[in-house]
Amino acid sequence: MTGRSPKPLAPAVLTGLASRWALLIVDALAEETLRYTRLHGRVDGISHQMLARTLRALERDGIVVRTAHATVPPRVEYALTPAGRDLRTRVAGMCAWSRAHLPEIEAARERFAAEAEHTRLRRAGLAAVPGGPPAAPLTATDALAGPARRPGDGGREIGIDRADPFLVPRANAAWARLALRYRLYGPAGEFLLATAVDDGPPRWRAVRVLPGADLMGAGAAAFLGTAAGRPEFAALSPDGRVALRATTGAARVRVIAVPTDRPGRDAASC
Amino acid sequence: MTGRSPKPLAPAVLTGLASRWALLIVDALAEETLRYTRLHGRVDGISHQMLARTLRALERDGIVVRTAHATVPPRVEYALTPAGRDLRTRVAGMCAWSRAHLPEIEAARERFAAEAEHTRLRRAGLAAVPGGPPAAPLTATDALAGPARRPGDGGREIGIDRADPFLVPRANAAWARLALRYRLYGPAGEFLLATAVDDGPPRWRAVRVLPGADLMGAGAAAFLGTAAGRPEFAALSPDGRVALRATTGAARVRVIAVPTDRPGRDAASC
DNA sequence: CGGGATCCGGAGCGATACTG
DNA sequence: CAGTATCGCTCCGGATCCCG
């Protein structure tokens, strides 16, 4: 048994146990036989239905015995068979493993997520910089949500026709122009980018532009939009005073600069 | 650690490992680091895509390390991390369990299936009898397949309007009448019933009728049709000489008796 | 109380095609 | 060779209702 297990054995049995409910139920029945409802309370999160189904599957495989007393109201008890008790020790081994390595696992997940983010950024021509997101006057959701505000309050908007064959370079140029004019970049060229996270609201990330960056093409294709030439993202200057946003409408791609505090002279007159 | 494991720990990690592919991959990487394609050959049954996805998940959780050599063609190797090697011993424990208890498990499955069949039969008002299915001149699929033959060859058909309020008792009576007239029952009242199996063709099962049987109502609802009053099944006399079939058409339920060998006088004239 | 039957959305998974 | 992208389907799993 030092090597791999014989081919046909593992799959046949594993398929039955490869549900997390099966493992949790075996664990819950570890030392007492339980009635249905108590068991339901123990497994925590399982639905009424899944408990019944998984119990039947376990009974089918001889891991659990079901004892129904013919009383009113009915009284049904579930317990592990000898095979089930044996299995339970193995399951406990896996649980012990998870407890022992939990910090490692979480660290690995964070490293993996960071690595993935860096890869996406690099594809867009950006580099993450250590500067963390300061308390911004605008939240990422604010800057991203809703129809883009018209920049009547001292900002500026540039639109490019989506049919334009030079859409991507022109949008990139517009972005660069507005970023410079409205002082998006901090002293080291850094600014805040709203990166979409899988679950939860977007998060501000401090980045800087690398030579040859292509936010509207490769960047939009990577994660700053839905596809190349369809950007959908927002940026914020490190001091939080100006927001830049790129958004894709039906006919045109728009790049918008909006001062976020006291709109007026100093930004627009620059 | 003698009791149940702490609630929040198990689910978090188990969800990642509750896929049979994850366990099989960990097992496959037990002692050698493998390249993608070799690994694909080892895991046996996994799709190209699932291997890639599961590997990424395992890498994400720090169970597997991916080493990509920047050569042409690319060369990527997968190996277990220390945590992965630790996990692997636990997985091996589960595999050992499956090997040790495999006969038990298969026996339990057969017992369960038999029990389920008996329950279904009892619900229809039937009892299984030890008599096994002899080599019947008709296979179950023959008797069940296609549109029911008109009994021009010495048999008899009785139809009942599906709108008839007494459909079920009348169909039951028709079945009983034809069963007696065409000698469906053997000496002990037994006959062969084509029971639908989940996978594979129908199988002949030796049964006998219990008092108060209701093949067309409860029986059809249980497994001899699609619902009460919609029977769809076939029976065969133990000697295989006569087939009875109940089938549900658009307007009527039909009960049909068909001699299977030398149609003619002795059966029809009875 | 302890389920079963049914409906339905979403995740899992496979087949195929394309890429560096 | 070692993936990723897209599509489509199946089955998991939950919510709800019903039954003995």
How would you summarize this macromolecular structure in one to three sentences?
Chains A, B: GO terms for molecular function: DNA binding. Chains A, B: Pfam families: HxlR. With 270 residues, the first copy, chain A, is an alpha+beta fold.
Walk me through this protein's architecture.
2 copies of one chain form a homodimer. In chain A, 43% of the residues lie in helices and 22% in strands. The relative contact order of chain A is 0.11. In chain A, strand 10 and strand 11 (242-248) form a beta hairpin. Chain A has 2 domains: 10-100, Winged helix-like DNA-binding domain superfamily/Winged helix DNA-binding domain (Arc Repressor Mutant, subunit A), CATH 1.10.10.10; 110-268, no CATH class. In chain A, helix 5 runs antiparallel to helix 8 (215-224). Chain A contains 9 helices and 12 strands. With 270 residues, the first copy, chain A, is α+β, with helices and mostly antiparallel strands. At the A-B interface, helix 1, helix 2 and helix 5 of A face helix 1, helix 2 and helix 5 of B. The structure holds a DNA duplex (20 and 20 nucleotides). Chains A, B: It holds the Pfam family HxlR.
Largest sheet of chain A: 7 strands, antiparallel
**How many discrete structural domains of chain A?**
2
Number of helical segments with 4 or more residues of chain A: 9
Low-confidence stretches of chain A: 1-5, 262-270
> Which oligomerization state do the chains in this entry correspond to?
homodimer
Distance between the termini of chain A: 76 Å
Radius of gyration based on Cα positions of chain A: 29 Å
**Looking across the biggest beta sheet of chain A, what order are the strands in?**
4-7-6-10-11-12-5
Instruction: List the helices and strands of chain A in order.
Output: HHEHHEEHEHEHEEHEEEEEH
Q: Kindly name the structural category of chain A.
A: alpha+beta
Instruction: Determine the most extensive contact between two protein chains.
Output: A-B, 54 and 54 residues
Helix amount of chain A: 40-55%
The averaged pLDDT of chain A comes out at 83
Rough shape of chain A?
elongated
Question: Beta fraction of the residues of chain A?
Answer: 15-25%
**Count of β-strands of chain A:** 12
Domain HTH hxlR-type (chains A, B): 5-106
GO molecular function (chains A, B): DNA binding
Keywords (chains A, B): DNA-binding, Transcription, Transcription regulation
Organism (chains A, B): Streptomyces marincola
